[in-house]
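Troubleshooting log. The previous structure file for this entry was overwritten by mistake, so regenerating from the original sequence record. Sequence copied from the archived sheet and checked twice against the printout by T.R.
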Amino acid sequence: MFTIEIAGIPVEIRSRFGSTRMIYKDYLSCKKPWVTVSASEVEMAAEGQPTPEENEQLCLYRKIALLMMDYNAFLMHAAVINIDGQGVVFTAESGTGKTTRVLLWKKAFGKRMQVVNGDKPILRFVNDHLFACGTPWRGKEHLGENTSVPMKAVCFLERGEEVSLRRMDAKEISQRLFKQVLVPSNPKLMGVFMNLMERFIREVPFYLYTCNMYKEEPDKLWEQIQKEKKVQYVV
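Regenerated output below.
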């Protein structure tokens, strides 16, 4: 049994395996937990992974991610970077180039940029501000840190010949967003989830980022994001 803190939320984990604790080693906390999670034998068996350890770890990951909704937070399949104290999300179907964008922008911005998370960050509203937070679920490249950053923009990636960055409307966002967030299967959570998504769409600028690694100039794209005025989406 041990306690972690993700996105400012202390969670007690009751685990059978030392390997599970190792996954969360950078997030261990001495704070009093707000909530406790564990995986029963039945829940573990339902995961269908090759080993009991993997079954437990997948089950706990999903439980932790879903309980975040009780604290105005949700999990997104994305990479998050911090440039000059502002967070940018890159999200897309697997294989489109999230990690490539992260490395390309890191090369361009150097010490001005930090990788917050490379695969599954938690996004959380705190006092009317949205923060992207690091998690132990960092992807196969293990990119990310135990940190957080206020959100500046979300970029949906797609490949193309010419590089462009275009603001998206609410309908476009909705068509893509729900493929990249963890959607609860429990009907009791669906209302909370939908409220979070509506708030997300209203509060953060979304872009369609057409990318080509041979032609991109991240500094110019970042300058465009900085100059854009906030638009209040109607959801």
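Residues 73-227 form a domain with the Rossmann fold fold (CATH 3.40.50). Archived copy saved in two places this time.
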